[in-house]
Specification:
alpha/beta; 9 helices; about 20% strand; globular
Amino acid sequence: MTATVLVTGGTGTLGRLTTPLLRDTGFKVRVLSRGSHEAADGIEYAVGDLTTGEGIDAAVAGVDTIVHLAGDAKGDDEKARTLVKAVKASGGKPHIVYISVVGADQESFAYFGFKRGAEQVIAESGLPWTTVRATQFNDLVLTLAKTLTKLPVVPVPTGFRVQPIDARDVAARLVELAQGEPSGLVSDIAGPKIYTLKEIIASYLKATNRRRPLLPIHFPGKASRAFRTGINLAPAHATGTHTWESFLIDRLR
């Protein structure tokens, strides 16, 4: 019998890459979406909202695996709680594969705290689970670079470093985990190289043939101190294969 996988956040940046890979490995793929979609390319859609809980009971019914990618700036712990509650009500015991963020265990600011909360909800659910933490995606770093360079003088937080990973590498790892046995918290995944934020911005400006003066700024606060210590980095787990430079070339082509 073909195993069914539910993908939350399946229409997002990571989900759009993960769902076809799951389908191609033999899963029957069901995507949770807040809006209705016609089934296409071997992928079906279930309407539901993890914020309100509407439609989640039906979405989780009969699934063997859940790849939980749905996330936001806040409330990921509550979304995980809603998901787990619906699964338990269904009587099933699917393997939940969750994507978290490197540094979540530090809880240095709200976003990491929500991610850590979601990790704990899943780990304490009594359901089979696997969680993997990833560094920041290339897409997020690109968005940051675009935002900062809109200004005539670019503010650059001093001491900040990133280790951007390509969403394609993350998607491939998630599929591996979904095919495997529940493994708890597995090794982090991270991009192949660490950059200062200044290097990221300079490379983006060069790639877009623009010039901007860069203004180093020391940002105060607990979160800024945490980033200066590198809590968002995983140098021992530089498993990504797509570099920031190659991503830029592809995206700006």
